[in-house]
């Protein structure tokens, strides 16, 4: 969790040197990279970058590598014609979805959406001055249950309560991803999932996925690092956080603040700190706790998604 990852833009020179190195290392298996390189000559820099990440991710991922490379090849063809959108393949049967909200998810490519609206506000006698909402996308077949997601979202509320902020409304949409391979995140799947969100979906948005092809466990894209990317203000939590290796890095049950931590990257528009005091954004897992620092609380209250509560009452 203690990680913001965002692929930096690579210059053409870096791209070439990286490719040269990779091809040299790969030897015989460098053929597909050679094909990729020759195709990239006439494409835009953005497309080159996306293809590079796509093929690299496929190479690193042992699962579904043929499907993955097919996807990259399709993307490479699209790049040459100037269209960078991923192909919108639909691999589901829309059988449910009576309401208009469900219909919008289905129209956008998600399958069988089940929507749960939760009021997470705590009426515990404390004074709350601000609140915000989070929308959650739980991908079916990712291994996550709604109960697990609810528990982690509930732990996240504890972080913000310390600032006098309620994480108020949480909408959990359990749905099948527009493409079945997107339960294992990579750049193109993330972009595809975000582009397919109904317009009413609020940010921050948290995606619960099975894994990340680059090996990240939980990560997020805050405004400071994501620029104008459609992935801004999204967080991604993989099922890998349940790994004992991961859990044992933290004190007690503090690993359960992973979602609160990732959301704090977004609403606090912040990175990590190395303070000697335990806090939610500490870069040392042993020093991660639910407590936000004073400056973080102030930053969160400035975020566009956070609203002031007029009557300052927790009973709403
Ligand atoms: Zn982090």
Overview of the molecule:
It is globular, with a radius of gyration of 21 Å. Strand 2 (130-139), helix 6 and strand 3 (165-176) form a beta-alpha-beta unit. The chain folds into 2 domains: 12-80, no CATH class; 100-308, Collagenase (Catalytic Domain) (3-Layer(aba) Sandwich), CATH 3.40.390. It contains 11 helices and 9 strands. Strands 1, 2, 3, 5, 7, 8 and 9 form a 7-stranded mixed β-sheet that branches. A two-stranded parallel ribbon has the order 4-6. Helix 3 (45-60) packs antiparallel against helix 4 (65-80) and helix 6 (146-161) packs across helix 10 (258-267). It has 316 residues and is of the alpha/beta class. Zinc ion binds at residues 1-4, 261, 265, 272.
Radius of gyration: 21 Å
Query: What portion of the residues fall into strands of 2 or more residues?
Result: 15-25%
Could you spell the SSE succession in H and E letters?
HHHHHEEHEEHEEEHEHHHE
Which residue ranges are poorly predicted, with pLDDT under 50 across at least 5 consecutive positions?
1-43, 83-97
Q: In the CATH hierarchy, what is the class of the largest domain? A: Alpha Beta
CATH fold type of the largest domain: Collagenase (Catalytic Domain)
- Secondary structure class reads alpha/beta
Q: What general outline do the C-alpha atoms trace?
A: globular
Task: Tell me the quaternary state.
Answer: single chain
CATH architectural grouping of the largest domain:
3-Layer(aba) Sandwich
Largest sheet: 7 strands, mixed
Helicity, as a percent range: 25-40%
Counted by DSSP, the helix tally is 11
Task: Give the ligands present.
Answer: zinc ion
Number of domains: 2
CATH-defined superfamily of the largest domain: Collagenase (Catalytic Domain)
What is the CA-CA span between the terminal residues? Answer: 32 Å
* Total number of beta strands: 9
Give the rounded overall mean pLDDT. Answer: 79
